[in-house]
């Protein structure tokens, strides 16, 4: 490898192209990038290593010349189009995890368009390592939390600390310490795997030695977290829960990780001696840009960005002023009220439009609420865990009213609530069916609404089916209430 100067040790063209790909992708899917920024900018959290990992991946790609042999290919174009379609589907149902998972794939498609499929396979290690900074790794939290609790239970018994352990809670004479999700050690494990993977990739050639290096850092990361938690328990016990470390211990864990990392590097150096002569990153290639390469790269990026850009343009054209709620004859006796959703106990985060109607029907006071979304985003969506059709709902059930399924529930205020979801022209009752309806109408950008009928019978409501029997026409009318 040519090391005559700093600027000769990396490829400026590769760096410029990678940065351009990242920028173009960010412009196409800005909300997804914003989610990653929020995730990566939280200090001492699980994915706080995200920006460092991204910079190191870029560094590795631009200094490793083994893959930088321009051999333009249009094969990645349909793969990039598929990635755009996956992003669009994930955005339609607001599954942010899937939206982030396509991003490393888009970068790999761009590299493959530059250098061909064969050469791009040499970039898979750094590209796949980006998944170590994506929230897919959250699946490891509970198993690691359970393992940390088990190990520390054994250690507490071994040293004779007076404590009662109930699940994740450690009851000591001076207070309670909890092995929470943050104590699972996922952040240290991910940082360790990143360190081991890149060290093995850059310094070792034999697969067996690479696996040994990664296995060692995984073990050290796990042991380091167990030691960290146990030391905090000891400190809490001996200080009678007065030590500041009991409450602020993020940096403490990284100190332990750094100490154990030193042992890793000593062992890794021994592995290098057992390895064959390392070929390094190769000689700096002559990367001559040509029309075919530029065309393949542009076609790949356009293939990915086309659907997200179209989606953003299409949904931004919806005008709130044009929305109308058309009530069927069975609900025409209701009149528009000045109440908003909060006043009636309904909650739909970030809704774009709402309207409330009130009126009486014999012994019942009826409140009809409509909450609609024109453009949904993470946390601003119809199907969301924090949303509710009324306050204090208990005992949600699904009932059938004259052949029409509806959701029903009682409230602590003695109301009965009935509700359905309308996505475009399709009416559903379950959250899963609502997501699927949004997916099926992905290219029409339908208005998504919750239609809610609250029934107040002065605290004398029977079960939902009894009330539904008396208000069958009004409940069925939810299906014919149009939001356009």
Q: Key features?
A:
14 helices, 484 residues, hydrolase, 8-stranded antiparallel sheet, peptidase activity, transmembrane, membrane, alpha+beta, 48% helix, Exosortase
Task: Describe what you observe in this structure.
The chain crosses the membrane at residues 12-29, 49-67, 96-117, 124-144, 179-202, 214-237, 249-268, 289-311. It comes from Salinimonas iocasae. Keywords: Cell membrane, Hydrolase, Membrane, Protease, Transmembrane, Transmembrane helix. The chain is α+β, with helices and mostly antiparallel strands and 484 residues long. The chain has two domains: 6-312, no CATH class; 320-483, no CATH class. The chain is 48% helix and 15% strand. The chain has 14 helices and 13 strands. It has helices at 12-28, 30-40, 50-63, 76-92, 96-120, 124-129, 141-159, 186-203, 207-238, 250-274, 291-316, 431-440, 464-470, 472-476; strands spanning 164-166, 169-172, 175-178, 325-326, 335-336, 353-361, 364-373, 393-401, 404-411, 415-423, 426-428, 448-456, 482-483. Strand 9 and strand 10 (415-423) form a beta hairpin. Helix 1 (12-28) packs across helix 2, helix 4 (76-92) runs parallel beside helix 11 (291-316) and helix 8 runs parallel beside helix 10.
In short:
Helix content is 48%, strand content 15%. It has helices at 12-28, 30-40, 50-63, 76-92, 96-120, 124-129, 141-159, 186-203, 207-238, 250-274, 291-316, 431-440, 464-470, 472-476, and strands at 164-166, 169-172, 175-178, 325-326, 335-336, 353-361, 364-373, 393-401, 404-411, 415-423, 426-428, 448-456, 482-483.
- Compute the average pLDDT: 86
General form = flat
Instruction: Flag low-confidence runs.
Output: 1-7
- Derived from helix and strand composition plus strand pairing, the structural class reads alpha+beta
Beta-strand share of residues: 15-25%
Order of helices and strands: HHHHHHHEEEHHHHEEEEEEEEHEHHE
Q: Compute the number of helices.
A: 14
The number of domains is 2
Distance between the termini: 65 Å
Radius of gyration: 29 Å
DSSP E strands, number: 13
Largest sheet: 8 strands, antiparallel
| Helix content estimate | 40-55%
Transmembrane segments: 12-29, 49-67, 96-117, 124-144, 179-202, 214-237, 249-268, 289-311
Membrane topology: Multi-pass membrane protein
Subcellular location: Cell membrane
GO molecular function: peptidase activity
């Amino acid at each position: 490898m040519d090391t005559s100067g700093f600027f000769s040790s990396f490829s400026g063209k590769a760096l410029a192209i990678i940065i351009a790909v990242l920028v173009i992708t960010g412009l196409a899917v800005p909300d997804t990038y914003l989610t990653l920024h929020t995730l990566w900018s939280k200090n001492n959290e699980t994915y706080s290593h995200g920006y460092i990992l991204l910079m190191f991946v870029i560094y590795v790609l631009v200094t490793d010349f083994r893959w930088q042999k321009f051999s333009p290919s249009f094969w990645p174009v349909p793969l990039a189009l598929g990635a755009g379609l996956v992003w669009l589907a994930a955005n339609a149902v607001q599954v942010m995890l899937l939206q982030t998972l396509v991003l490393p794939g888009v970068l790999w498609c761009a590299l493959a368009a530059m250098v061909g499929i064969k050469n791009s396979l040499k970039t898979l290690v750094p590209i796949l390592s980006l998944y170590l900074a994506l929230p897919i790794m959250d699946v490891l939290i509970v198993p690691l939390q359970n393992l940390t609790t088990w190990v520390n239970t054994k250690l507490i018994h071994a040293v004779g600390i007076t404590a009662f352990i109930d699940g994740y809670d450690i009851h000591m004479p001076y207070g309670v310490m909890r092995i929470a999700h943050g104590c699972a050690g996922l952040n240290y494990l991910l940082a360790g795997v990143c360190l081991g993977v890149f060290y093995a990739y850059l310094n070792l050639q034999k697969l067996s030695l690479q696996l040994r290096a990664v296995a060692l850092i995984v073990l050290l990361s796990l042991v380091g977290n167990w030691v960290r938690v146990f030391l905090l328990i000891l400190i809490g016990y001996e200080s009678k829960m007065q030590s500041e470390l009991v409450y602020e211990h993020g940096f403490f864990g990284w100190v332990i990780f750094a100490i154990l990392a030193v042992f890793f590097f000593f062992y890794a150096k021994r592995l290098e001696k057992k390895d064959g002569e390392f070929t390094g990153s190769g000689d700096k290639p002559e990367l001559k840009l040509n029309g075919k390469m530029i065309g393949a790269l542009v076609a790949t990026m356009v293939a990915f960005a086309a659907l997200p850009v179209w989606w953003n343009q299409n949904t931004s054209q919806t005008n709130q002023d044009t929305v109308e709620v058309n009530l069927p004859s069975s609900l025409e006796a209701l009149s528009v009220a000045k109440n908003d959703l909060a006043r009636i106990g309904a909650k739909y985060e970030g809704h774009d439009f709402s309207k409330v109607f009130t009126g009486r029907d014999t012994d019942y006071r009826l409140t009809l609420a409509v909450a609609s979304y024109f453009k949904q985003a993470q946390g601003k969506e119809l199907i969301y865990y924090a949303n509710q059709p009324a306050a204090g709902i208990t005992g949600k059930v699904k009932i059938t009213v004259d052949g029409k399924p509806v959701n029903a529930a009682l409230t602590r205020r003695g109301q009965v609530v009935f509700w359905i979801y309308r996505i475009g022209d399709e009416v559903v009752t379950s959250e899963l069916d609502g997501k699927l309806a949004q997916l099926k109408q992905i290219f029409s950008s339908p208005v998504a609404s919750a239609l809610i009928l609250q029934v107040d019978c002065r605290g004398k409501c029977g079960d939902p089916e009894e009330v539904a029997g008396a208000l069958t026409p009004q409940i069925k009318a939810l299906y014919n209430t149009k939001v356009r």
